Amino acid sequence: MTKLATHVKTYLLNNPKLFFLLFFVITFLARLCFRSSLLELDEAEQVIWAQQLLSGYPNQPPLYSWLQYLLFQLLGVNLISLALLKYSLLLGCVYCYYLICKFYCSDKLLALSATAAWSLISSISLDLLKDNTHSILALLTACITWYWFITNTKSPINWYLRLGIIIGFGLLSKFNYLLFLTLFLISVTLQKEYRLKLLNRRVFFTILLVIITALPYGKWLIHNYHVGLHAVYKLAPEQKTLFDGFINLLSASLFFIVPVLTISYLFFPLPFKIKRSAANDLLLHYHILYFPVIVFIVLSAGVHDFETRWLIPILFLIPLVFFSYLKPNASLAIYSKRFILFCLFVQFIFLLILSYRSYFGHNKRQSIPIVEIAKTYKTNAQKIDFLVSDSHWLLGNMKLQFKNAQSYLINQGITIPSGASLLLWEGQTMPYWAEQLIKQAKPTNIHWIRNKKTDRIVAGQALINFNVPDKQIT
């Protein structure tokens, strides 16, 4: 048994593609089989938005929702479609990052160790697995942008054309890709070899492809900025100041950087070897410039709050700042295997935490019994034509229970068609929009949902029926 385990471990280390594929299978199955079938907030939002192919969607650029729309068309609106897209993109992130690590590290084991070090960055190894969607796509496009820029190609025109498409997709992934791109381009201009690439006249093909790729969303955003940029209010909450934004950025940066570099240093007591090359200088200058550039952007934009997860597509290369400068010796194999096993153990613990949290955590999953509510209506053979709510989480989860029902996210002026409509809301009081709809129709059932442990009201529902022309919320 020991020999078999040793052979398997050696085989996986020598065949990293299979190792990454195994990672995909485990995380994909863990989401389907070992976590609650109820959706996280980001997943529920995709159930709402990605059922239509639109030029733009609220809060974030549309590329992720476009991809999710395609999977919904192929596999249906279900948890499998959601998980397949998310963990396929995550697999792409890990593999592309590994290719970058191979480029920078002088030994294959160091490259694998640098890749495994992502598990020590909880924003990546925990938060991305938990509920993030657009952040994964932003990370993938940032990885591809960096890898494509530092590698050479036999066809220069092909290099510039593809770079334009990559950057265009990055702009369509998540808004914080712009922070990465800004910092990256500033760093590139400091390196003569890479600066010449930007000064080449072929770069106009890159710019043209960026414009063409992002044009549909750009036109939509100009005319619908109040919808597309609706989440901007999160950047400047009234109770916080500009100084709070700076402190949040500083603490987020330390939380992102310090654990992974400290633990890596403890596992690898190896000498450093300073390597001078354009790629290494780019990596070093990028991280030296990171804090002053991002601080300048944060202060200039009036950002009062900053989340650690926003750094994912910006500081994803931080393990390479350590591993790319290590000088291999005879002890490297032992150090690397210990470190990789430790990282796998940490990742396994995070998977257990996610599984435990989805069933026993103190959140609204336990407070609002989505499945039980749906079963009540299904058992009574109650037809539900429309689902109406102001909560993405409630609406997305209910949509999976009533796949044939149309979903409506409440906003002022929305028109509710005639038919049986299930109204859902969170909180201890009935919202204004629900009151207005109930006044205009004869409700067949109004029910308050209580937390079973505290007996406090946490949500409400009402089944109403319009048998008259379509009603509008005013």
From TrEMBL:
One Gene Ontology term from the biological process aspect of the record: lipopolysaccharide biosynthetic process
GO MF annotation list: pentosyltransferase activity
Transmembrane segments annotated in the record for this chain: 87-105, 136-153, 159-190, 202-222, 242-270, 282-304, 310-327, 339-359
Subcellular location: Cell membrane
Coiled-coil regions, chain positions: none
The entry's keywords: Cell membrane, Glycosyltransferase, Membrane, Transferase, Transmembrane, Transmembrane helix
GO cellular component, one term: plasma membrane
UniProt-recorded name of the protein: Glycosyltransferase RgtA/B/C/D-like domain-containing protein
